[in-house]
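Dear Dr. V.,

Thank you for agreeing to look over these. As mentioned in my earlier message, I'm a first-year student in the group and I'm still getting used to reading structure tokens, so any feedback on how I've presented them would be very welcome. I ran two proteins. I've put each sequence directly above its structure. The first is here:
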Amino acid sequence: MTDYQSASSKDERRTAWLFVAPALIGLFMFVGLPFALAVILSLTNLRLGSPLPLEFLGLEQYYRIFKDPAFLRALLNNGIFALVVVPVQTAIALGLAILLNQPLKGMPIFRTFFFMPVVFPMSLVSVVWLLIYAPNPDGMMNSFLEFITFGLWETTDFLRNTWLALPSIMLLSIWQGVGFQMVILLAGLQSIPGNLYEAAAIDGSNKLNQFIYITLPQLRNALIFVMLVTSILAFRLFDQVKIMTQGGPNEATTTVMYEAVKAAFEQQKMAKGSAMTVVFFLVVLGITGLQRILLTQEKAID
């Protein structure tokens, strides 16, 4: 390698670092440093307003939270929520994306209409759905179900019913977030070369086979991305629970983030709340690692 090439390579690396540095600094300030502080706090007995001196407890806080029935129920609720919302929301978003990818008049208006709930703050959406789930015969959901069942439906308090509270929050979350996934998948659909479908049609392939063997493989990266983001948001579930149910009834809707916030700011047990957030971070990190494994396997196959 000549001196000129060596100098050029050094300049390129220096330029690359200049572009990467702000992102690395932001990642350290807003992710790395808070996580490190949470880990440190989780190893102590820190409690706001407590006259007791600060002590190092090691892994005692983690031992306590994994013996806490409320935290275990929160993990279970987050898992159930993710297992239902992620595939259902992705399937609906894919169906809407395919529908809105048709070359028909007025499609931009429909795309805006379906994406609109994503723009609204979750707190506002939760308040609106509180009115929809109103526990009286005039409530929108009760009235709708009574209408479609020809009067057989009995008025129900959705958010105070142990079996219906979490599914009610799932329905709200799917409605609010499906537009985001739809936009990502719609962009993926529009990037698929049209000649693939033309060649398949010439070979006699029907629409179902084209969807299975062309559309889905071409959307693999987009599908993995939206499922990853939705999974992370599923474990970050907090606003709906705080506004609509406060974790009830009987902890049927409590989540990891809700338990962490309650422990840190309501019970003033900062160390306990920090331990919960560390567990949450590791769960999200595991989901991210799984996504990278899937992408690596795809590249190896290609």
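The second protein is here, in the same arrangement:
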Amino acid sequence: MDTTRRLPAGGNSLTPDMLDAGPMRQFERWLDDAVSAGLPEPTAMVLATIGERPHARTVLLKAHDVNGFTFYSNRTSRKGADLAAEPRCCAVFPWYGMGRQVTVEGSVRPLSMAESEPYFHSRPRGSQIGAWASRQSRVLASRAELDDRVALLTSRWPEGTEVPMPDFWGGYLIVPETIEFWQSRPSRLHDRLRYRRSGPPGGCGAGPGWIIERLSP
């Protein structure tokens, strides 16, 4: 499928009157468009954190609602250490095939074990074992070291037994302060419309509490 020609209604322009009053509903619309267009990994987002230097990697969005955006990770990973020390981040959804991008900036809070367990147990069994086996972001002597840990853990929890969720693994909720919707335009004169929070968290899905601003490309 050629996704490069799929543009939003009204051509490739983006104006404030085209946006929903609430940023999370607007995000839902664009995500639905990306899924319908057949873009690869439409829920992939580039997550940037702040450590001893800036770090970035791609993670998968697993839920989004009026509260914000949810992803999961090993908490002992580099991203986990960064977020424990500085609970702020930026996430970018790069939907290149549609000439669109969404950028989210905000604070991050870890989800509790009770909040994280339902998703963990919904994952494929191999991914559950993998969460235990990977000492994420740490140096491996060889691939065999990782494969040996997987084999050991697979024998510990054979098929038919439940794999418990590691206490070093769980979810994170990004609570947005700004959400920018970017639409490509000719001559690099792109449309950039940003929702900026003007009230306390809790109103991500409704108009009140958010200001829409146009940014220079």
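From my reading of the second output: The first strand starts at residue 44 and ends at 50. Residues 1-10 have pLDDT under 50 and may be disordered. Does that match how you would interpret it?

Kind regards,
E.
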